[in-house]
Amino acid sequence: MHALLHLLIFWALAFASLFLALVLLNIYSQVINSDLELRNVRQESIIAGLASLIEAVSVWLVATYAPGAVRALIIPALIVAFIYKVAHLENWGRFEIFLLLAFQAVIAACGAMLYFRHIQPAFMIVGIFTVFLVIYGFVIKSLGD
Q1: CB 51 within 8 Å of CB 18
Q2: Above 80 in pLDDT, residue 144?
Q3: Which of 22, 28, 89, 102 has the smallest C-beta neighbourhood within 10 Å, fewest atoms?
Q4: What is the pLDDT at residue 35?
Q5: For residues 21 and 27, what is the distance between their CA atoms, to the nearest angstrom?
Q6: Interval 46-86: pLDDT, tens
């Protein structure tokens, strides 16, 4: 396959996982009565497009030229965190950004595992993450009371 096509596929997958992570984070914040303020859909799409492009280029570079350097992908995750922190400077704290990246990581990991037909580990990741979200929600609600 052509390299540009690989990059476009990575970008589409990164954008889809990031946008789905935003939707799930919004739903989760409504469930725990947290004040997550998002911009309008157009602005969030532009932010997600830029952030996912950085993720896609990074994954493409690692997959193409340095398959053993998977740990280097922490750098684009930090860049994405910085982009979202700057874009939502007044409204978001570090926990919202952490949750956004966690949602995206779980979505990407489960998607990859389901693609490679590893059903049980995908469900285990979702289960463990759900337990984490429940505990985190109880802590946030107890701090708010």
Answers
A1: yes
A2: no
A3: 89
A4: 83
A5: 10
A6: 999 999 999 999 999 999 999 889 899 999 999 999 999 99
Interatomic CA distance for residues 56 and 31, integer angstroms: 31
Tally of residues, the chain:
145
Token digits of residue 22:
């935003």
**Residue 34 amino acid letter:** S
Q: Are 144 and 33 in contact (CB under 8 A)?
A: yes
**115-140 burial, b for 16+ CB within 10 Å, e for fewer?**
eeeeeeebeebeeebeeebeebbeee
pLDDT at 143: 81
Question: Please, are residues 102 and 89 in contact by the beta-carbon 8 Å criterion?
Answer: no
d(CA 28, CA 12): 24
The Cα–Cα gap between 102 and 143 comes to 21
d(CA 96, CA 103): 10
* pTM strictly above 0.90: yes
